[in-house]
């Protein structure tokens, strides 16, 4: 219902309004900037002649100019504001076993790869007396505090296999038939 009402008002006296709009005089364009007029006068021969003419007074002044340049003295920066690396990071070869193809070959000192992290966590879980935090820190070039945090907060998954007898008990149970 609302669409019909709005359509009536929108279409009311359309032809009259359109003819009134068409019959209006076109608006006058805005005045041009003075630089636009200079482009048209630049093609005139008098201006071209003035541009290419040599002025003897300016040439004598130009010959009197002598430029001597010197590099400023080099200042040694103390490095207080900038933190540029003074040496490249030391890298170590990874200690991988049979998973060598899955991981990177070199790791920066103080860091470990994912495969190494899983390996050391698993070794600590299986033999905590041998793989202590101190030994892991020395073996992988890590800080003791970080190794303690790693061993405390990350635990590898444990895979459990169910005995076969339980599997047989589940399959031997008769299924109910739908009637």
UniProtKB/TrEMBL annotation:
Where does this protein have compositionally biased stretches of type Basic and acidic residues? 17-27
Please list where the region (Disordered) is annotated.
16-45
**A Gene Ontology BP annotation from the UniProt entry:** mitochondrial respiratory chain complex I assembly
Q: Which InterPro entries match?
A: NDUFAF4 (IPR009622)
User: What GO CC terms are in its UniProt record?
Assistant: mitochondrion
Describe, as the record does, how this protein assembles with itself and its partners. Binds calmodulin. Interacts with NDUFAF3.
Q: Which family does it belong to?
A: Belongs to the NDUFAF4 family.
Recorded hits in PANTHER family, A to Z, give:
NADH DEHYDROGENASE [UBIQUINONE] 1 ALPHA SUBCOMPLEX ASSEMBLY FACTOR 4 (PTHR13338:SF4), UPF0240 PROTEIN (PTHR13338)
Q: What protein name is recorded for this chain?
A: NADH dehydrogenase [ubiquinone] 1 alpha subcomplex assembly factor 4
Designated gene of the protein: Ndufaf4
């Amino acid at each position: 219902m609302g669409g019909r009402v709005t359509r009536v008002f929108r279409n009311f006296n359309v032809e009259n309004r359109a003819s009134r709009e068409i019959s209006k005089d076109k608006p006058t364009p805005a005045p041009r900037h003075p630089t636009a007029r200079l482009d048209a006068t630049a093609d005139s021969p008098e201006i071209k002649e003035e541009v290419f003419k040599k002025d003897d007074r300016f040439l004598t002044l130009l010959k009197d100019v002598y430029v001597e340049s010197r590099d400023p003295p080099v200042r040694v920066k103390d490095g207080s504001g900038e933190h540029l690396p003074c040496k490249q990071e030391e890298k170590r070869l990874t200690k991988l076993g049979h998973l060598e193809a899955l991981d990177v070959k070199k790791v920066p000192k103080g860091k470990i790869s994912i495969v190494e992290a899983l390996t050391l966590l698993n070794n600590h879980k299986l033999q905590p007396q041998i793989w202590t935090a101190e030994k892991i820190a020395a073996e992988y070039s890590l800080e003791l505090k970080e190794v303690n945090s790693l061993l405390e907060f990350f635990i590898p998954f444990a895979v459990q296999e169910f005995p076969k007898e339980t599997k047989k008990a589940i399959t031997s149970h008769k299924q109910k038939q739908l009637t």
